[in-house]
Write a structure and sequence with these properties.
Layout: H1 2-13, H2 18-46, E1 53-54, E2 57-58, E3 60-61, E4 64-65, H3 75-119, H4 129-134, H5 145-160, H6 168-189, H7 205-227, H8 230-240, H9 249-252, E5 254-258, E6 277-281, H10 297-327, H11 333-374, H12 378-393, H13 399-407
Antiparallel strand pairs: 1-2, 3-4, 5-6
Helix pairs in contact: 1-2, 2-3, 2-7, 3-6, 5-7, 7-10
Amino acid sequence: MYTFVAEYLTELELLRTQTEFDDSLTLKIYLLQFVNYYASIFYIAFFKGKFIGYPGDYNRFFNFRQEECGFGGCLMELCIQLAIIMVGKQTLNSILEMLLPQFYKWLNVIKVSGSRLKSGWSMKGGAKRWLRDLKLVQWGSRSLFPEYLEMVLQYGFVTIFVAAFPLAPFFALINNVLEMRLDAKKLITYHRRPVSQRVRDIGIWYRILDCIGKLSVITNGFIIAFTSDFIPRLVYRIVVSPDGSLNGYMNYSLAYFDTRHLQPGSEPQMTEYNITICRYPDYREPPWSEKPYERTSMYWHILAARLAFVVVFENIVALVMIFVRWGIPDMPCELRDQIRREAYITNEIIIKQETIRARNEKYCDVASARTTFRDSNPSANFIKMEQIEQLMNATNMSGAQLDLVIHGPNNPVAPGYVRASERRDSIEPVSL
């Protein structure tokens, strides 16, 4: 259902290129699957048992009390939820990846066999190789999408909630070892040979993985600070405990409540014991104080310590990531320098070739302009052709005759040339 919804929304965008369409569709499907797989985990980690109120004044939602965590907190419940969803999802996907291609192959076998029987065509000597390949499942343009989606969702389980379920990387390793062999068998025995396509990169998946890595730092910091009891115990050992131990921590973390302040209908059942005071996990003033059931100063100290831990944790992880990227670059220095040198040499060659081409074009333009100016007169063209014929037919020609033929009679180098200033007017005067 998520795929149909994502395709419909992507079609409404009217994207220009296939790459933009694929990236948008991939992002929508992943976000829908993200909510489907991680919603319950985020609820247990950050919302369950955080806004319930206290006995006598519970916060209600649609007139129902909110769900509470166990006595040990929600961390153990979060770990169990992660284990069930992650391991169960991996097991179910592995089973479906083997059964579905086999089922589709069985349907193709029935379809091809039915077509042969209907046409009355038979194959002597057994089926040919191409006919056996025709019965395999066709590899579509988005057949790799479920594989990428499965790996990215698994990466989210391993990184986002690793503080609550430290065994997640171990189960992911076991699953991936089995997945390699199952996918190899599936591609070889159940699918036709895929047609390779040249692409630039893995598309938007890289940005999704980068966002998951940054989100995992924040979520793990909040899980350690707010979901677990690490910060309250640390504050108790540093501030309250005289010897730096956890002796008396349980009694210190429980608040007092007078049963007479319970709402009508929520009182405890009658027993042989007279219960007047009960304890519950919270940091509130006792009922006999001046401000009963108000937050104690220790609650605010612990909250400040939790926020400070999140800030320090994120900055330390960011510094470690920067150091790792600097110490282990994606590209070695030698390879980067070689690529830069090749790019420099390529640019120099291109610039040199463009310079030579520009010079040749300029020379050709000047030559064509001169030729056009000289050949604009048809008589000049006729004289030029006549001169060429004279040179080709000449056998014994002196230098003066050669200059006369080439340069013409009006050229200064031609024999017998007379300047205009030295010429006399040959017209005789007319007597009146």
